[in-house]
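Meet our chain:
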Amino acid sequence: MEVLVKDIIVEGEQALKHCNIDDWKTDSLLLAEYFLGVTRKQLLLNQGLTVDVKLKRDYMDAIQSRCHHIPLQYLTGTQEFMGLEFEVNTDVLIPRQDTEVLVEAVLTYIDKIPGEKKVLDLCTGSGCIAVSIDKMCGSAKVTACDISEKALETAVRNNQKNKAAVTFIRSDLFEQISGKFDVIVSNPPYIRTDEIPKLMPEVKNHEPVIALDGDADGLKFYRMIVGNAREFLKPEGMLFFEIGCEQGEDVQSIFIQNGFSNVTVQKDLAGNDRVIYAKLERK
């Protein structure tokens, strides 16, 4: 038995709207593209397009999962980042557009330095930062680490999927890292512990808390990374972070207290503080 795709999508829209999913119209269409195997262009050109009832069942199962606030990206298993496609699952954070600002800042910096650049990505998660830098900067030699074995398994698959050449190490920050790097980059956990219960259900109930929780003031990992970075950065090496929109001044102070200079805060597309970076002063 065949069913009209346009009718299925309307049914999905109504279900999501009833469950108070904010982007109910967009999400229903994106799930249709993934589970029904149709594109928007096909729908526009053929209003009589049909699929079998099994595909409709798969689609409606996904709609019900979305109604329970499971993130769309975990249902499709993918997320686009820096023009590349990444596998995502509940072991890793979903890459955000805001984090592209961090990658672009790193790329802008390393493109100005002649020769090979050694880059270390701490708390790599899905590997989106490390893989993007490796793919977009031919002179970068990228190493990435994470404490989570499951996250690293995902990152390795993303490395292979995108034909990148990142080296992955299981490490609690610098614990298993050796050598010196021109650039260290990190999007560490930076949400205050007491703020996590206030996050949208898609985040607090489904994304890995270990990748969100930055301790009581949200600054734990900035202190740990900056405090130990001198041992792993080359003279005048650069350290880049993603930050929460209200953390610029605090992280700047951490940098200065640990012998970094030229501290720069960069805003995201919404005009919020999102990236901070600084240079390690020679002793």
About this structure: The two ends are 75 Å apart (CA to CA). The chain is about 40% helix and 20% strand. The first strand starts at residue 2 and ends at 4. The mean pLDDT is 96.
